[in-house]
SRPBCC family protein
Amino acid sequence: MPLTDVAPISASIEIAAPPAQVWAQVSDLRNMSQWSPQTAKSILRGENGLGARFININRKGPLVWPTQTKIVRFDEPGADSTGEIAWRVKENYTIWSLRLEPTTDGGTKLTSTREAPEGISDVSVRLTKVAFGGVPKFTSQLETDMGKTLAKIKAAVEA
């Protein structure tokens, strides 16, 4: 039975660039290895877009592990509308997303979220306890890493 009492975690940042410019960077998950403290590499299998599949190589300290993801939402932002890319991790059932919202000054509010609408798999919970000090500690680290990821995306887009 998966761990089902899982609150979403998220972080946001404002970027001094229009949503289309931010989308050009974040809509290709192969870029995640440049930003995420945990993603070492993302390998696209097929065409990028809704339904695309990735193999990810993740790392934390000396630990390295693969995951498989599939893009489940791929909504390019319009001139005055929001956009979102979301991907589901097969091994732990979580859904990660990046949501882009236009700001009144022509920039973009970028929000990273991790949800677990189906809970987190038993295997993932057990491995998290053994390798990362438990779910609460690892969740806190993920939330901290979200902020670091968003800061790196902001720096890349604004450069």
Remarks:
- The chain is about 30% helix and 35% strand.
